[in-house]
Amino acid sequence: MDRLIIRGGIPLRGEVEAAGAKNAALPEMVASLLTGESIQLHRVPQLGDVKTTIGLLSHLGVSVERRDRETLFLRADRISRFEAPYQLVKTMRASVLVLGPLLARFGRARVSLPGGCAIGTRPINLHLAALEKMGATVSLDAGYVEAKAPRLRGARITFDGQTVTGTENLMMAATLADGVTVLENAACEPEVADLAALLIRMGARIEGVGTPTISIEGVDHLHGAEHEVIPDRVETGTFMVVAAITGGDVTINRCVPCHLEAITEKLQETGVIVEETDWSIRVCGDGRVQGINIRTHPYPGFATDMQAQFMALMAIAQGSSVITETVFENRFMHVNELLRMGADIKVIGTTAFVQGVPMLSGAPVMATDLRASASLVLAGLAAQGITTVSRVYHLDRGYESIEQKLLGLGANIERVTE
């Protein structure tokens, strides 16, 4: 098992390039199930979750070929299985996205329930109820969802709560349905819009993407397409905080600044300088930031995936901060590890009260989930002394070669294998 050893206290400076977005690449890989023709995806990051998705799609019969570091070719012309087994689904909840495409194109699907999640429950009941409204017969058997439908039909679906995977699953299913499907209270995230862009290139008829109401007119078949995955806004945001927390000067290239407006606004409130071009963001800090209050919300609000990173920053801010988590009920698992490094944080329910301290101290810490692991790396970069971050396989699920990128900015960091 790998771990990262960080010697902190160094202001990081230089340029780094954002990778393709994991949360866009995964559903776009799954979208290959909707056609027997080739799908070519560019800027697909080399991540643990991407590897897991390749394994799942290969299990179903999709031909997957990586021709270079960033390009995948997928062809689902010989699907031989219609079941996503537990041993594959249990490691990544996004695996449930195969349900909609399999059901839409082949009329059947058997997908294992994803099980527990370290950051809280993320039930798929919204997906299943919507598929039933589209004419599917859905049942549960031995921990599996079984769905059948000769052909899905269009329906008006109103989600009780915004769900990214639910929006993506139903949007993909609706592309091959009979008639028009309208998704109300749909997720507005850029990753949803990027999936829609791919589907439209494949011949889908979709309107309203980026708004809470998405309309999809079903077609008889979809064809192959070529598409470039959007830059990862969470990785971009993480490196923005790297500059702020170390008092450095970092430029993130090949990103989309308009996807990070909520993050940029909050960073500016802390007192750091943020400069933007069309495709880059530069963040300059002097090591002194002001405490601010944060409340997570679905896009375009402050992303829950950036909450842990900002908590690490607030741990060394001047004054106090209040951080409220509204998206997931158990996303403060990094707090105990930050306390080990000298942070002053008290959690009451879904709110964390952070009193900034002059300095964090290096310590052995353990990652509990993907974004928590990023916050511990950030804290280690700012801390005095040595920080050892264990369980970095969480980090590898969503950050491509993060230690190499940090080394390029001047960090003292190394990966060791136990």
UniProtKB/TrEMBL annotation:
<keyword id="KW-0670">Pyruvate</keyword>
<dbReference type="GO" id="GO:0005737">
    <property type="term" value="C:cytoplasm"/>
</dbReference>
<dbReference type="InterPro" id="IPR001986">
    <property type="entry name" value="Enolpyruvate_Tfrase_dom"/>
</dbReference>
<keyword id="KW-0808">Transferase</keyword>
<keyword id="KW-0132">Cell division</keyword>
<feature type="binding site">
    <location>
        <position position="305"/>
    </location>
    <ligand>
        <name>UDP-N-acetyl-alpha-D-glucosamine</name>
    </ligand>
</feature>
<feature type="domain" description="Enolpyruvate transferase">
    <location>
        <begin position="7"/>
        <end position="406"/>
    </location>
</feature>
<dbReference type="GO" id="GO:0008360">
    <property type="term" value="P:regulation of cell shape"/>
</dbReference>
<comment type="pathway">
    <text>Cell wall biogenesis; peptidoglycan biosynthesis.</text>
</comment>
<dbReference type="InterPro" id="IPR005750">
    <property type="entry name" value="UDP_GlcNAc_COvinyl_MurA"/>
</dbReference>
<dbReference type="Pfam" id="PF00275">
    <property type="entry name" value="EPSP_synthase"/>
</dbReference>
<dbReference type="InterPro" id="IPR050068">
    <property type="entry name" value="MurA_subfamily"/>
</dbReference>
<feature type="binding site">
    <location>
        <position position="327"/>
    </location>
    <ligand>
        <name>UDP-N-acetyl-alpha-D-glucosamine</name>
    </ligand>
</feature>
<comment type="function">
    <text>Cell wall formation. Adds enolpyruvyl to UDP-N-acetylglucosamine.</text>
</comment>
<dbReference type="GO" id="GO:0019277">
    <property type="term" value="P:UDP-N-acetylgalactosamine biosynthetic process"/>
</dbReference>
<keyword id="KW-0133">Cell shape</keyword>
<keyword id="KW-0131">Cell cycle</keyword>
<dbReference type="InterPro" id="IPR036968">
    <property type="entry name" value="Enolpyruvate_Tfrase_sf"/>
</dbReference>
<protein>
    <recommendedName>
        <fullName>UDP-N-acetylglucosamine 1-carboxyvinyltransferase</fullName>
        <ecNumber>2.5.1.7</ecNumber>
    </recommendedName>
</protein>
<dbReference type="GO" id="GO:0051301">
    <property type="term" value="P:cell division"/>
</dbReference>
<feature type="binding site">
    <location>
        <position position="93"/>
    </location>
    <ligand>
        <name>UDP-N-acetyl-alpha-D-glucosamine</name>
    </ligand>
</feature>
<comment type="similarity">
    <text>Belongs to the EPSP synthase family. MurA subfamily.</text>
</comment>
<dbReference type="GO" id="GO:0008760">
    <property type="term" value="F:UDP-N-acetylglucosamine 1-carboxyvinyltransferase activity"/>
</dbReference>
<dbReference type="InterPro" id="IPR013792">
    <property type="entry name" value="RNA3'P_cycl/enolpyr_Trfase_a/b"/>
</dbReference>
<keyword id="KW-0961">Cell wall biogenesis/degradation</keyword>
<feature type="active site" description="Proton donor">
    <location>
        <position position="117"/>
    </location>
</feature>
<feature type="modified residue" description="2-(S-cysteinyl)pyruvic acid O-phosphothioketal">
    <location>
        <position position="117"/>
    </location>
</feature>
<dbReference type="GO" id="GO:0071555">
    <property type="term" value="P:cell wall organization"/>
</dbReference>
<dbReference type="GO" id="GO:0009252">
    <property type="term" value="P:peptidoglycan biosynthetic process"/>
</dbReference>
<keyword id="KW-0573">Peptidoglycan synthesis</keyword>
<keyword id="KW-0963">Cytoplasm</keyword>
<feature type="binding site">
    <location>
        <begin position="22"/>
        <end position="23"/>
    </location>
    <ligand>
        <name>phosphoenolpyruvate</name>
    </ligand>
</feature>
